[in-house]
Structure formats: C-alpha cells, structure tokens
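Q: I'm writing up a methods section and want to include an example of the input and output format. Could you take the sequence below and give the corresponding predicted structure tokens, formatted cleanly so I can copy it straight into the document?
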Amino acid sequence: MTEYKQAIILRVDVGMSKGKLAAQAAHASLEAALKVMHRDKTLKSDIFSSWRAEGAKKVVLKVESEQAIIRLRDLAVRASLANSLIKDAGLTEVPAGTITALAIGPDEESKINKITKDLNAL
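A: Here is the clean output for your methods example:
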C-alpha cells in the first residue's frame, strides 16, 4: 500500500521564536496542500484524499541556511512534487522577503524521502 506524507522544512538560522516557527510551518503546509488539492482535481488524482484518509502525516525538519532550503525546493520541482516556499511579510520577527519555510507534498512518502532523507527533525 502506498503511504503519503508532507515534509515541512524550517530555517533555524534566522532566529525565529517557537510561535513564529509554528506559524511559518502552518503557512507552508497549507499552501502546498492546496496546490496538491488543485492538481488532484486537474489530473483526476487521489493523492490529497489518500493522504487525508491516512491521517495527513507530516514531518517537520530543519535546515541551517537559505541556500539549503532553496536547493530542496529545486529538487522538489525537478521531482514534480508540489511545494510551497514561504517568504515572510516582515511584520514581526524577520525582514520582509526572508525565506522561512518550505513544504513538500503531500505525495508518496518514498518520493519525499529521496529529497529529505539527510535532514534532521526540528
């Protein structure tokens, strides 16, 4: 049976508070899931529904730089995985335009693991 998940990657080098990290994770998760939901309707796929039926598995991982998060986004694009790169509005803790988070998927767990296998949990 195919298992699905979503990976949420957060930058820890910009010094965000726990609350800010949680908000950025939520932004990334929602935006990427909406992309999959829209794509599912277009392609007659069932990834989003299957992911939700399995409990909407998510993992939260960390990176130490902007370059690392952009590299992961590029890998997700090359693998045709839905993703959402979050740039902060700059209203609270970080300057406007700061890349804070990335969500990849939901999609097949094995596809996401190929990209995120070397990352540590937050």
